[in-house]
Amino acid sequence: MRLFVFLAFLSVLVTLVSAWTKEDHEIFDLVTALETSEGKGTTFYSWLDVSPTATLAQINKAYRKKSMQLHPDKNPGVKGIHERFARLGVIATILKNTEGRKRYDFFYKNGVPKWRGSGYYYARFRPGLGTVLVFLTILTSGLQYLVQTLNYKRDLRRVELAIRDARLAAWGPKMEPLQGKRKVKVNLGGGPRQGEDGNVIAGKMLDMVVEQDEVFILDSSGSLHLLDTSSATPAAISNTWFIKLLISSIRKFSYSKEKLPKEADLAQSAPTVDRPDSPASGTGTQSEGEEPHQTGHVAAVKAGGRRRKAVRKR
């Protein structure tokens, strides 16, 4: 019933919003600008100093008088005088026109609507990319939080129902607590249903243990897990996508900052490996009569041997 009323109200609101014309939007803008410039509650009639029932001749006379007062030539250097003078001409044009005055009188008597349609506000207060992204982030995060809340209430009802069914199966219809542990089976599948072959298929059965007021879930390994309302996960802002993304980015950034100093320390503490062609490695020129270095290259040993043979022949 509430959903029906809400949808009906929404349809009426959409109908009213779609009924606003371009001329109506012009009147909305003028009303807002006039109250901002001349003061809250200023109307077209009060600004011209005429009554709402004034005739066309009276409006023309009031307009000429007001235009002489606000003419820019008579108010040199006055801030905003050009805007006020131009606004006066537009207002006078609306009141001189039969249809325009009729539309303004409607809003004058009933009040200017607070909600004027999304197109009206978008055209006048066109948001930037940053504003749109912030709005979408807040909107999607809010919807996600709402879904979390609904899921939490649903899971909470399921937990309470499972606890009640387990106690009912263990204690009987009187629901009087009994001493000791009692193993029961609770149907979590929504009750039995009829299969395609005509046989009755039971819902999902879960093994539980009831001990006084506490209810436990019995898993396949024989372990007991307490079942209470804390088993349902409550809604949390920290579980929305944007907050989780923000936390994850901060953790990655912190991890990267900690990792860089560690890598630098490891690089400094690593042992220096001798290059094969360095003098310390034993591959340099060996003087006559010296024994080849044990860690020298094989080629250096052979070269030393050839030099000894050459000396003996001489």
TrEMBL record:
Tell me how this protein sits in the membrane.
Answer: Single-pass membrane protein
* Entries under InterPro entries matching the protein: DnaJ_domain (IPR001623), DnaJ_domain_protein (IPR052606), J_dom_sf (IPR036869)
Main location group: membrane
- Signal peptide segment: 1-19
Looking at the record, the residues that make up the J domain are: 43-108
GO CC annotations, alphabetized: endomembrane system
- CDD domains given in the database record: DnaJ (cd06257)
Q: Which SUPFAM superfamilies match?
A: Chaperone J-domain (SSF46565)
Subcellular localization(s) per the UniProt record: Endomembrane system
Recorded protein name is J domain-containing protein
Taxonomy of origin reads:
Eukaryota, Fungi, Dikarya, Basidiomycota, Agaricomycotina
